[in-house]
Amino acid sequence: MFYIFNNTLELSGVVESFEYLRWTRRYNRCGSFELKAIATDENLALLMIGNILWPGSDEEAGIIEYVEMSREEREIIAVGGRFATSYLSRRIIWSTETLNGGLSDCVGQLLQNHIMNPSNADREIDFLHYINDNITNAVSTQISYRNLMDAVTGLCEASDVGVKTVFDPTAKTFTVRLYEGAESQAVFAEEYENLTSQIFTQSVVDYSNIALIGGEGEGASRIFVTTGSRAGANRREIFVDAKDLRSEDLSGDYTTALLFRGQSKLSERVMTQSFDAAINPHGNLRYKVDFDLGQTVKVISIRWGVILDTRITEIEETYDADGQSLDFVFGKGILTLPQKLKEVLG
Length: 346
Prior knowledge:
By secondary structure, the chain is α+β, with helices and mostly antiparallel strands. It has 4 domains: 2-84; 87-179, Baseplate protein-like domains (Phage tail protein beta-alpha-beta fold, 3-Layer(bab) Sandwich), CATH 3.55.50.10; 183-204 and 271-345, Roll (Phage tail proteins - horseshoe like beta roll fold), CATH 2.30.300; 210-267, no CATH class. The protein has helices at residues 41-46, 103-116, 148-159, 254-267, 337-345, and strands at 2-5, 11-15, 20-26, 32-38, 52-54, 62-71, 75-83, 96-102, 128-130, 138-144, 162-168, 173-179, 183-189, 195-203, 210-214, 224-227, 237-241, 272-279, 296-301, 306-320, 323-332. The strands form 4 sheets. Strands 1, 2, 3, 4, 5, 6, 7, 13, 14, 18, 19, 20 and 21 form a 13-stranded mixed β-sheet that branches. Strands 9-12-11 form a 3-stranded mixed β-sheet, with helices on one face. Helix 2 packs antiparallel against helix 3 and helix 3 crosses helix 4. The longest helix is centred in the first third of the chain and has 14 residues, at 103-116. The radius of gyration is 22 Å and the shape is globular.
């Protein structure tokens, strides 16, 4: 059963039966969902673009962003969209923001200036709030004209910090929260019969470990700094253009800001090592009790000689006629082509 709210967060009704639901939670990126149901009059009235779908058992809710209706033997309505963190994607950083301080403070600055209390009242979303969870990972950078959600999730990814937007149907609010996944004692292994399938991936295709960062100035007077330490064939270099960072706008050390930009880029280009796995729901570990999104767990494959202490970065919950299934991504997965293009094009 799923509750449907309209775009003013009023309860519109309930979807009591459906054929299929995929509910994908992500640690430091926006989650997504897909729902397929019979196109009854009630479902057609509820499953409309802009309405909000909330399962009741999750802190987060999804905003319907597309609707597809089809007919073969019967009429079917399929809807999908992203979690409420996507409200941030409706704004850009309208000018240049100089960020110096802890991660929670810097994210709060961005949200305050561009979505909660902007100078232009037309940009405000009055039901969106922010709680400062005092995550102090250091940030020193400038961001100009970037999509707000991409800026926030990018800062979180660089710091290995999670972001979620919590729905409160009683207060009719959404609240953006940052969090650090705890360490779990859970151990996943086929030998423990808590995995039903697994895919282990390693890649150095996009790996870099040395960044040359170019700051302000021209020619021989341009400022350059380097971060990273490798030599010989193991050294993999990238250039990071940080000319947009201006020392006159940074109250802190300009070199620190350049290094932060370079280290952030390197954090996006680490050696990829990930497990994609289907979890046995009847195994020895209980979802949301022994393990959950963002937590650090141990994954073992004796056959493949793999032992990973890794974070759960994505959980895909699927509900259909066969019941519930869980597919996990442990660690940082391989970028898909659309993600690569987005990374290259900014």
